[in-house]
């Protein structure tokens, strides 16, 4: 039986953890060096609900310089991931996604979960009179923007990354019951979920790179 093909696109501010998340997702390894992304395409073969799924993972650049190129990534998208830089999500990312992908479900992802209890990070935020984003704040934002679900994870520790591997392919189109609004608060997990069984990555060059 041929694999079901799904396309997942991740968008968000620069340096918010998009690339690290997808590299861990597809290669099961955490990159130690930050490399700014223009467009990168990864492929993960997974099994969800006893079905083979070929999940294409599209990474995008969040900088304003690429605002005109980024829409090239949106056609035929099945699900959108938005890391939770809460300041820009309702003003920039959600309007952009809903303009180009009006019926595509959004999953709000809290990256860098491991830093929430990091003493150095908490002290630095305290000096700026800030604090780490709380789970309830993230979920409230997810409900506000009409997201399908809210998930917290850490690419560095891999906590929560596996859950994304089946949550993404199972996300339902806008207008159907979301995990945030289901009676149990989250749709029941797959009874049978296997991890990535094959990995590859491909570079997708922007037009500006080809010149």
UniProtKB/TrEMBL annotation:
CDD domains: RhoA_like. GO terms for biological process: small GTPase-mediated signal transduction. InterPro entries: P-loop_NTPase, Small_GTP-bd, Small_GTPase, Small_GTPase_Rho. It is a lipid-anchor. It is found in: Cell membrane. One of its GO terms (cellular component) is plasma membrane. Residues 197-211 have a biased composition (Basic and acidic residues). It comes from the Eukaryota. Residues 180-211 are annotated as: Disordered. Keywords: Cell membrane, GTP-binding, Lipoprotein, Membrane, Methylation, Nucleotide-binding, Prenylation. One of its GO terms (molecular function) is GTP binding. Regulates a signal transduction pathway linking plasma membrane receptors to the assembly of focal adhesions and actin stress fibers. Belongs to the small GTPase superfamily. Rho family. PANTHER family: RHO FAMILY GTPASE (PTHR24072). This is Rho-related GTP-binding protein RhoB-like. It comes from Scleropages formosus.
């Amino acid at each position: 039986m041929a694999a079901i093909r799904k396309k997942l696109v991740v968008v968000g501010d620069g340096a918010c953890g998009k690339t690290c998340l997808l590299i861990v997702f597809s290669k099961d390894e955490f990159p130690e060096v930050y490399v700014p992304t223009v467009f990168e395409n990864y492929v993960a073969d997974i099994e969800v609900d006893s079905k083979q799924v070929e999940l294409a993972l599209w990474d995008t650049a969040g900088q304003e310089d690429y605002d005109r190129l980024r829409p090239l990534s949106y056609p035929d998208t099945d699900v959108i991931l938005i890391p939770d830089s809460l300041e820009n999500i309702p003003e920039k990312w959600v309007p952009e996604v809903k303009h180009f992908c009006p019926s595509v479900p959004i999953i709000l992802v809290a990256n860098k979960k491991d830093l929430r209890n990091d003493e150095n990070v908490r002290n630095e935020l305290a000096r700026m009179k800030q604090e780490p984003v709380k789970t309830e704040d993230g979920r409230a934002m997810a409900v506000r923007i009409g997201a399908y679900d809210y998930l917290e994870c850490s690419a560095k520790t891999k906590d929560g990354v596996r859950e994304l591997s089946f949550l993404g392919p199972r996300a339902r189109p806008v207008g159907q019951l979301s995990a945030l609004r289901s009676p149990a608060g989250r749709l029941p997990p797959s009874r049978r979920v296997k991890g990535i069984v094959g990995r590859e990555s491909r570079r997708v060059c922007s037009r500006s790179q080809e010149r």
